[in-house]
Design goal:
Keywords: Membrane, Transmembrane, Transmembrane helix. The protein is mainly alpha-helical. Helix content is about 85%, strand content about 0%. The protein has helices at about 1-30, 35-55, 55-85. Helix 1 packs across helix 2 and helix 1 packs antiparallel against helix 3 (about 55-85). The relative contact order is 0.13.
Length: about 90
């Protein structure tokens, strides 16, 4: 499980940096075309975030899969804890 957590952290960091990088690139191009900085950043966010979903699809899929694995693990741990609190023998499954 720690290997999945390590990959999830790395993948999530890469994905966030890539999406923010895309916003910066879009804003920089607009600033070069003499668009005011604040407007360029706003357009960069509006355009960059949806485009990032398409451009970084594989990385998005890896992050989503990692989050699903982590969610499944947490649900199992929560069910085990609840069983222990009820006094049932949860066992090690």
């Amino acid at each position: 499980m720690s290997e999945t957590r390590t990959h999830l952290g790395r993948d999530l960091t890469l994905y966030l940096l890539a999406r923010f990088g895309l916003i910066v690139v879009v804003a920089a191009v607009l600033v070069l075309v003499k668009v005011p900085l604040l407007v360029a950043v706003a357009v960069g966010v509006v355009v960059g975030l949806p485009v990032g979903l398409l451009v970084f699809r594989k990385l998005n899929a890896r992050v989503t899969a990692g989050l699903a694995v982590r969610n499944e693990h947490r649900a199992r741990e929560r069910a085990k804890l609840r069983a222990q609190l009820r006094g049932e023998d949860a066992g090690d499954e």
